[in-house]
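BACKBONE GEOMETRY TOKENS:
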Amino acid sequence: MSMDGSSNKSSSKRASVLPNYKIGKTLGYGSFGKVKLADHVATGHKVAIKILNREKIKKMEIVEKVEREIKILRLLMHPHIIRQYEVIETPEDIYVVMEYVTSGELFDYIVEKGRLTEDEGRHLFQQIISGVEYCHRNRVVHRDLKPENILLDSKCNIKIVDFGLSNVMRDGHFLKTSCGSPNYAAPEVISGKPYAGPEVDIWSCGVILYALLCGNLPFDDVVVPSLFSKIKRGEYTLPDHLSYEARDLIPRMLMVDPLLRISIPGIRQHPWFNNQIPLYLAVPPLDTTEQARKIDEEIIQEVVNKGFDRNHVIESLVNMIQNEATVAYYLLLDSRRRVPSDYFQSNFKEISDGTFNSTIPVQMVASFPALINHDHMLGQRSRVNADKNWTLGIQSQAHPRDIMTEVFKALQNLKVCWKKIGLYNIKCRWVHKSHISQPVLKFELQLYKVSEGKYLLDIQRADGPHFIFLDLCVALLRELRVF
């Protein structure tokens, strides 16, 4: 009796919190809460609602993970990335309304089918790369790409999920957190070395491609230290059944040296990837702000017909505000695009610059202030100024080895003390002896790949006067001249 009463009370509470949804069956349980199937009342379309219990996520120490995923998914609109429609908060729970995907994990699909044909594997891989490229264009690194975090819809198209370990790239800042699943993690990640970000996703995509075409993992060992050793050495075998082009692409992605690892533009130009590529995937997708400028007139009219004010709908869309109107709009839009190619071919009209705010507005996160730290809001051009460290970047097309050789020569000439942290990462200490107070400056140098054949030497002040840092940068530039 008490159980029925508790269940009815819980259902009544959800109905009051989620009046725009008709809650259905439970899709799954987790240690943090549950996922329910629901119908959106205004449009009739199905959604999945993730119910996160605040007390449980606090006990499990995953509050930061939940915050990060919610913030990042608010930025992303792509046919191969799971859609987050809205977030509703109560003192006890967080309700995350998501796109409903029907056909399970890519992992289970691979286990069931074994290795895929190269045509089918390529079809899925092209979609994965398009989604990952879109993330990188919006300065988001996933950091936990694996078949378990890729879902399949009813048409066997992929949706990238689980952005809880993702991070946002900022100019002059390098990620140092070792995270993700060991079998899919890049050598620099498990070694604890700093990394720019995109290159670790490329490695994980290489492991996924291997799994698609071979039916097993390139790096696998029950003994974790042995697994790490294989990854760090890049020790794996390519089966004979792979085509010449696949045998060429996989090693380029699983290159131990991150600076020599192929980039997404390089993958796009590779003949294996380009074979039979759908038109909508043949060009890089629009970034979030560009997409927000485009509205579908027919869908707008459908939303207006359901009782919403036209100007309110358009203003909410272009400013990327999540509310009842935009939820209805995107549910209707997504249901129309029954195949991903429709995603970039709808009847779009571009909004003029006068009505568009290029930064993510405060209203975008103000609906759940207890969950989001406003000091870490995500701007489209990564305008986060949290620690205000000064940075300088020098670009070059020379070989990484030659760049580092010239850097070491310059540091020696400037009498800079340095300590090598990684292959392309140096911590430095410099005393400005010509200055009366002889201030000590500490800074860090890191070389990373910008694009195919282009590298950036990043110089970041760690401690010491800003103007002394600028003096040092000028002196270093004079020493380096050209690489």
Observations:
- The chain has four domains: 2-99, 106-281, 288-365, 391-480.
- The longest strand covers residues 440-451.
- Residues 168-179, 344-348, 352-391 have pLDDT under 50 and may be disordered.
- Residues 118-137 form the longest helix (20 residues).
